[in-house]
Amino acid sequence: MKTAPHYITKRLLLLSLFLFVLLLVCVFAGISLGSTGGGFKWVWNSVMGQTAADSMLNTIIWKIRFPRVIMAVLVGATLSLGGLVFQALLRNPLAEPYILGISGGSAIGAIIGILAGLSLFPGVSLLAFSGSIIILLLILVMSSGQSILKKDSLLLSGVIINAFCAAVIMFLISMAHDSKIHNIMFWLMGDLSMIEMRHVGYLALILLPCFVIIFIFSNSMNLMLLGKEMAQSMGVNIKAVTITLLITTSLMVSATVANCGLLGFVGLVMPHLLRLTFGSDHRILVPACVLAGGSYMVLCDLLARSLPQQGEMPVGVITAMIGAPLFIFLLKRSTR
């Protein structure tokens, strides 16, 4: 008879393999399709070295599309994983960095860095992280008079913080020079169009260690869902785990916001979908969020590039169009 650890390991490997293959298919589609042509056959021939290295289409595929698709993978994985962590720590199925205002705080810090003329890394990224931590502390203080685990107080705090962040962002935009306003507005809607491979490298250096840290604490999140007393009796240091995961998640989210702007509701859609599909074991859900979240964002970005007849729309428009109705449905369901 198979023991539970062996069963979990086998299930984890099989699901990870399946989702990794799905991610590869999405990445291949992402770099193959676009308004400037290409196609699956061209990309396959390019991978096999059967096309001219200096051709224009080859340059578009590997210098423009490929960095953008890999960035979409990292961003989707980060936001999905961020939503999963917040939902586990706060024991609230509606918790998510965008809804709680964490992304808005990161955006404020990033815009200040952009207006100050700082470099993306470390200047803008550091300010974005500082903004997310400040907003996180504000949310915890505002909801701590009752309990941060209470759904109503948490969501109310998030709504208030989001409104405050939106007001600050509008104030900062009103102070910007005309030449920067358009870029900031497009960036705020979630923009992957200006990504270069060096940006992908910087972000990967920040995110990959964070993914590992969250996976290490995945079983602790399982135990914390059973209740504070039960988790402590099983050896979980509640305070240390909570602080570590909150800071790690805030760092991940702020790094993605600094690079790509605000992408809403990804952390709401994917954890719910994966939880319904694979169950509530975070040892399974953490790698599932990384792989499936990356696939989801690649497909959203592909839609953002493909739907307009001319040009493209910000990918944040697609994620909001999918996520906002789901949020309303879940909110209505949770209040029954």
From TrEMBL:
GO biological process per UniProt: siderophore-iron import into cell
One of the Pfam families matching this protein, by short name: FecCD
Gene Ontology cellular-component terms listed: plasma membrane
Keywords carried by this UniProt record: Cell membrane, Membrane, Transmembrane, Transmembrane helix, Transport
GO MF annotations, alphabetized: transmembrane transporter activity
SUPFAM superfamilies cross-referenced by the UniProt entry: ABC transporter involved in vitamin B12 uptake, BtuC
Transmembrane segments: 66-86, 98-118, 124-142, 154-177, 197-217, 238-264, 313-331
UniProt xrefs under InterPro entries: ABC_BtuC-like, ABC_transptr_permease_BtuC
Compartment annotation: Cell membrane
Family: Belongs to the binding-protein-dependent transport system permease family. FecCD subfamily.
Name of protein: Uncharacterized protein
